Amino acid sequence: MDTLLTIIIVLAIVWVILKLVSYASGSTQAPPPPQGTFKQPTTGYRPTTSTARSRVIKFDEPKAAVATVFRSELAGLVDAFTGEPLNLTLGLFQCARCKVYYHKSSFDVIRSENAGRCVACLDSQISTVNVTRVRGTPPPSRPTHVPTVVTLANYREHVGRVITFEGYVVKLLVSRRGLTYAAMFEDKSWRAGLKMVILRGRVHAVGGPAFIGRFLHNTVRVRGLLQRHPKYGYQILVTERSMIQDIR
Fold this sequence. Notes:
Elements: H1 2-24, E1 66-70, E2 92-95, E3 101-103, H2 104-113, E4 126-132, E5 148-150, E6 162-168, E7 171-174, E8 181-184, E9 195-198, H3 203-206, H4 208-213, E10 219-229, E11 233-237, E12 244-247
Parallel strand pairs: 1-4, 5-6, 9-11
Antiparallel strand pairs: 2-3, 2-4, 6-10, 7-8, 8-9, 10-11, 10-12
């Protein structure tokens, strides 16, 4: 019985060895593909590399619009924002719609405080000015801006424009850091009442703290940009001493 079991084990081992040898030699073949199927192509697809050089398209930066005017056309005209006589050395800009002029510093304020809109017509097409020395005949209409005189009753209708306002300063408020001033024309909070505002960085250009202190309990006539600030409400923005027209 033990001899028979030994023979069976040996035969099984021999059978396994023969199978392994047959598999290693490749004698075992894969079954043929079923009818109706495609055979794997013998050569694969290789994308060809184009010999043409790739062309890079470059776009030029858009150039700022430039208006050309004769020097003689500017005589007697003023900055539509501050009311100061035009000074060619300060850089000039012009509104394409109503043709009023601005110094560069005024245009910078308009961009930051009025969304780039003209304070005379609210158009946003303002371009740099190229002044030519060639003599020319001034146009029949003079592109100047005379601010509308507003009162406490109607000032809300002129947001975004430069206006002229005259009122009694009931109190003078200063920011916590002492950098911004608000001359209140109404006995209300900084946010609720109409006020004239001198922002930080412009205090000395307007006249300094001592000059601004004269506003309190006096009637002031001011030329400035009327804003409706999202946090501080209605205010008249002033950036230059020339915009304070009278104190009495």
